[in-house]
Protein: EAL domain-containing protein
Amino acid sequence: EAKRRGRNRAVAYRPAFDATLSRRLQLIHQLRDALERDEFELAFQPQVAADGEIAALEALVRWRHPARGLLLPAEFIAVCEDSGLIVELGRRILRDAVWCQRRLAAAGFGHIRIAVNVSAAQFTDDLYDDVAQALHGRPLADGGLDLELTERVIMDSPAHAIELMQRLAGLGVSFSIDDFGTGYSSLAYLKRFPIQRLKIDRSFVQDLGQDASDAAICQSIISLARALDLHTVAEGVETEQQRDWLRERGCEELQGYLWGKPQPFETLLPALQHGRWGARPHA
Ligand code: C2E
Ligand code: MG
Ligand code: MG
Ligand code: MG
Structure:
């Protein structure tokens, strides 16, 4: 009976499944072409320190689709991840990120980190080689390259993660835990990871000031980080109220639309050079 029901159900869902599958295959095909044609680019969003200075720029990938315009990661990253294309895409992102950090350094902004998101599928021993290759034997300023990893990525196999992160740290890489608070980190392990920062997930920042439990969560992440000698970066800061709340409680760095949407390096660098960044009203 269960089997027959199961079969019926399978039949009922088949057309939808086929449509999804064929869309997916088509997308994989397009993504391969896009890699070949170099249609991916990076947008950067500042992580702003308490004094208003930029501490880091997070690299966020976009796909300049020939017909559909500029596409956000939500449209393609998941398919890149489960098709394995993320490995090649990730290599290019690392190479571009290193190049941008070198240009920052050449312009006198070498203290600004470039932060790069790393997916689970990239977080293998090959990542070491990819970073080493991107650096091309010329190290950046210590911590000049920051890798953002989620709790899920590092907790999957913590012992292996620690070892890989330690080797990467030998290349001068620093680490942030992205979307912190949404995963299931073991606090015992957290202490053992060679990490520098916890990034408070946007979902907790969003309702600061309205939602008492979100405030409590943000406060505990900041306290936890302090106890572990880590810094906190809050994501998704959109209002002055959120900014002030977080700064008052000692959150070291803030990131969000309050300082603008992610933008191309080619517009950010001149803004930095001409001091226009510091002149912003929201700093
Ligand atoms: P994430 O690493 O947590 O990045 C933060 C996301 O929040 C970015 O979305 C950013 O544009 C957005 N954001 C920043 N400030 C605000 C704000 O004030 N309000 C709101 N509502 N959103 C804000 P984006 O660029 O669409 O990226 C989404 C996710 O895609 C990233 O989340 C990251 O997980 C992934 N991703 C982006 N770039 C890369 C990449 O180069 N490689 C990999 N593996 N994943 C990437
Ligand atoms: Mg991130
Ligand atoms: Mg995040
Ligand atoms: Mg996220």
About this structure: The CA atoms of residues 158 and 189 lie 7 Å apart.
